């Protein structure tokens, strides 16, 4: 059997992506380069002084508190912690950290809770 030979026209893109585009190709005559606006120019164009003061925007950073619950973070590792120890009230991320939490002396537990501002004075 003979292999068929198919003639096809070779289609090349107008410019190669690996080549550096020349400035005259990017901006034909009559077009100017695009200039970025600075933040001060954007703020002046938006007329933020006309907005109500209680509506949050880029100038006014006061906004209402988040409606999402805060993330629980492991007191030892800093990772997200789905568990907490009922005896010490420390949060932990996995079984290895749980073993460490259970082996901590009471004064260290109180220090970890004080960092989280959840310290309870045990008598």
Automatic annotation (TrEMBL):
<feature type="domain" description="Vps72/YL1 C-terminal">
    <location>
        <begin position="72"/>
        <end position="101"/>
    </location>
</feature>
<protein>
    <submittedName>
        <fullName>Chromatin-remodeling complex subunit ies6-like isoform X2</fullName>
    </submittedName>
</protein>
<dbReference type="GO" id="GO:0031011">
    <property type="term" value="C:Ino80 complex"/>
</dbReference>
<dbReference type="InterPro" id="IPR029525">
    <property type="entry name" value="INO80C/Ies6"/>
</dbReference>
<dbReference type="Pfam" id="PF08265">
    <property type="entry name" value="YL1_C"/>
</dbReference>
<keyword id="KW-0804">Transcription</keyword>
<dbReference type="GO" id="GO:0006338">
    <property type="term" value="P:chromatin remodeling"/>
</dbReference>
<keyword id="KW-0539">Nucleus</keyword>
<keyword id="KW-0805">Transcription regulation</keyword>
<dbReference type="InterPro" id="IPR013272">
    <property type="entry name" value="Vps72/YL1_C"/>
</dbReference>
């Amino acid at each position: 059997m003979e292999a068929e030979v198919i003639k096809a026209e070779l289609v090349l893109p107008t410019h190669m992506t690996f080549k550096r585009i020349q400035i005259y190709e990017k901006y034909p005559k009559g077009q100017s380069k695009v200039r970025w606006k600075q933040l001060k120019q954007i703020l002046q164009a938006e007329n933020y002084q006309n907005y109500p003061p209680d509506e949050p925007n880029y100038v006014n950073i006061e906004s209402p508190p988040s409606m999402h619950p805060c993330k629980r973070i492991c007191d030892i590792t800093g990772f997200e912690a789905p568990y907490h120890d009922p005896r010490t009230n420390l949060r932990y991320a996995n079984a290895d950290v749980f073993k460490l939490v259970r082996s901590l002396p009471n004064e260290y537990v109180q220090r970890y809770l004080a960092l989280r501002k959840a310290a309870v004075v045990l008598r």
